[in-house]
Amino acid sequence: MSATETLVATGNQGHSHGPGSPVPLQARNERTTSYDVADFPVPNGREEEWRFTPVKALKALFADEAGTETVKPDVQAPAGVVVETVAPDAVKAGKPQDRVAAVAWKHAEKATAVRIPAEAELSEAIHVNIAGLGGRGFGHLVIEAGRHSRGTVIVDHTGAGELASNVEIVVGDGAELRVVSIQQGDTDSIHVAQHDAVVGRDAKLNHVAVTLGGKVVRLSTNVRYSGPGGDAELLGVYFAESGQHHENRLFVDHEAINCKSNVLYKGALAGDHARSVWIGDVLIRAAAEGTNTFELNRNLVLTDGARADSVPNLEIETGEIEGAGHASATGRFDDEQLFYLQARGIPEDEARRLVVSGFFNDIIAKIGVPEVAEHLHEVIEQKLARTAALTEATNV
């Protein structure tokens, strides 16, 4: 069965832009991947992979030119962890899938590698701090977990400027790795990144994407399996305010047998022109028997003028699977919940805060890193306070 036949068989019908102009279906794995920038034309915003993105804001990152600043990650790691500078092509977990990733691959002068030795069990998290200085920079980070190791890596992005980066993650056989990527740049910062992860035999990856700041943030996360029994949990939390664009794109490529993936992303939006985009692609190849996968995205729109786009996609090439599904929902406050709380004497502002906190609580609890969870609660409280003030000013 061809890719087109498979998509139609699973309910993904073709569409047309007018009589006689059918748009051919394209499987997710058929899109261009390359290290050569020339293989990716400068996007105009009409391409499928760019139609939700404000491409004009990314003009500088599309240019095939060297950066104006050097990205220098500050790594704080427990004893035994190896931190070194390597060539950008030292590890190849995945090829660039768009022009920005290819430009970043070409112009990142070096890569920072963080390696957890085989059998090591870290009691403390590894911290990687990346601060933009206001220019245009390119970064390359490699994270490797040796066989049967256990560890957590927190990557914190702050500061100003424009950053394009590639992150390569390799989880060795039997290892368990948690990677938390936090995007909280300054108001006018721009951050575009591609994360590529390879999950080994009977290994587990927890990948967490937290987006709290920045004018435009676009994070593409790709996962594939190098052996049977792999398990990937992909979590995401984002809160876009006025003028912010937060975009998350995921591709889980099931090729090995008996592997699992679970995707859960939740976001809130408040303010005029607050925008979020979530694209979830899962491919179950013909050889991936025994696959069990599910993806879910939920969005809470807090004010007028905000918009959330959510597009889950599932391609199945074999019927010999344990389970597969997807769902997404976008809505406003639950009036029944607000009424219930207000009927018990809780003021409306406080009731709204409790509803939003409850919306995020389950996914924050899954993150598994107390310091990140605490920080998330604090930032969400600050954003809710600004939202309440905005709402009050609008209603005056």
UniProtKB/TrEMBL annotation:
Compositional bias of kind Polar residues: 1-15
A Pfam match: SUFBD_core
Signal peptide: none
Region annotated Disordered, chain positions: 1-27
Xref: InterPro entries: Fe-S_cluster_assembly_SufBD, SUF_FeS_clus_asmbl_SufBD_core, SUF_FeS_clus_asmbl_SufBD_sf, SUF_FeS_clus_asmbl_SufD
Domain SUF system FeS cluster assembly SufBD core: 138-359
Annotated family: Belongs to the iron-sulfur cluster assembly SufBD family.
UniProt-recorded name of the protein: Fe-S cluster assembly protein SufD
Organism whose genome encodes this protein: Kribbella orskensis
